[in-house]
């Protein structure tokens, strides 16, 4: 090891739980392909989520419902080939786990076997308890996802903040405790009041990763294209843009176009 390049210490489901215990916040981002995952991993992001938001961001669908298990596996395979350190979690897509626990396990096994990912995520609490149990019993780590669950958008009708009423907040708290008790290694809380999210994070020992859930949780997740400022029509309050790649890329494409039209590109040095 003395002359070899320093090896990265891989992030594991266990190290995430340790990070929570030690008060170190967890940074998570999505990625859907090899090139992006290489950059995200190299930047020291702890967890890469191959989100079903690929349905929106990569394929242009209006919701996350259309993306298939085969498509999720294709995205995840590229991501896994890129990573040296990050933990890779893959969303089980709509329709791949709701019918029955056996189908859920089969879907999770396909993701693990065919992509090489490290864990799966699925939306819901008590309703999907048996499926989560089945997957965990097979030795596959599970991340929960409560609050705004986009696969149920047609049940709720809007993407507004969730669990503002006592009854829904009570259910969410119980679901989070249940996920911890069952053996999930973490849970995503999406678009819920910050006070509720903080209360949940303080009531369980597994990390709570927030998106639109305030600063009292154990980590944050954003969609990478949103953070980079590539999606200009998506403007929720929780989004902080760290770049304006939409403008940067437009400038680059316009410059290239101009150089082609003006015969500036390619130059003598750029040909054989
Ligand atoms: N690009 C992208 N980023 C995401 O964060 C994301 C996706 N896609 N697709 C899947 C889910 C859907 N998510 C969403 C969708 C909408 C809002 C949202 O706040 N929408 C409106 C407000 C709607 C309302 O209040 O009724 C907004 O302000 O943009 C938040 C998260 C998060 N996920
Ligand atoms: C927004 C995150 C949590 C997600 O589930 C996704 O990107 O699909
Ligand atoms: Mg998702």
TrEMBL record:
It holds the Pfam family Pantoate_transf. Binds 1 Mg(2+) ion per subunit. One of its GO terms (cellular component) is cytoplasm. Gene3D superfamilies: Phosphoenolpyruvate-binding domains (3.20.20.60). Pathway: Cofactor biosynthesis; (R)-pantothenate biosynthesis; (R)-pantoate from 3-methyl-2-oxobutanoate: step 1/2. SUPFAM superfamilies: Phosphoenolpyruvate/pyruvate domain (SSF51621). 3-methyl-2-oxobutanoate binds at residues 52-53, 91, 121. Its EC number is 2.1.2.11. Coiled coil: none annotated. NCBIfam families: panB, PRK00311.1. Catalyzes the reversible reaction in which hydroxymethyl group from 5,10-methylenetetrahydrofolate is transferred onto alpha-ketoisovalerate to form ketopantoate. This is 3-methyl-2-oxobutanoate hydroxymethyltransferase. The gene is panB.
């Amino acid at each position: 090891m003395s002359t070899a390049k320093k090896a990265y210490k891989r992030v594991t489901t266990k190290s995430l739980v340790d990070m929570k215990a030690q008060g170190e916040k967890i940074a998570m981002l999505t990625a859907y392909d090899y090139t992006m995952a290489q950059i995200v991993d190299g930047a020291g992001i702890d967890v890469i989520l191959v989100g079903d938001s690929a349905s929106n961001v990569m394929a242009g669908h209006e919701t996350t419902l259309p993306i298939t298990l085969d498509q999720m596996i294709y995205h995840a395979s590229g991501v896994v080939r890129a990573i040296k350190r990050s933990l890779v979690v893959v969303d089980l897509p709509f329709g791949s786990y709701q019918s029955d626990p056996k189908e859920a396990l089969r879907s999770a096994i396909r993701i693990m076997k065919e992509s090489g990912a490290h864990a799966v995520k699925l939306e819901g609490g008590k309703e999907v308890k048996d499926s989560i149990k089945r997957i965990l019993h097979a030795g596959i780590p599970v991340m929960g996802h409560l609050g705004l669950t986009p696969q149920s958008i047609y049940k709720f009708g809007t993407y507004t903040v969730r669990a503002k009423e006592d009854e829904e907040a009570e259910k969410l708290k119980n679901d989070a405790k249940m996920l911890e008790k069952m053996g999930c290694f973490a849970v995503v809380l999406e678009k819920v009041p910050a006070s509720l999210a903080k209360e949940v994070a303080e009531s369980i020992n597994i990390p709570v990763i927030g998106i639109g859930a305030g600063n009292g949780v154990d980590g944050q997740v954003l969609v990478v294209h949103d953070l980079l400022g590539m999606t200009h029509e998506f403007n929720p309050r929780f989004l902080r843009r760290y770049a304006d790649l939409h403008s940067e890329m437009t400038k680059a494409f316009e410059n290239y176009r101009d150089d082609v039209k003006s015969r500036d590109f390619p130059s003598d040095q750029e040909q054989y």
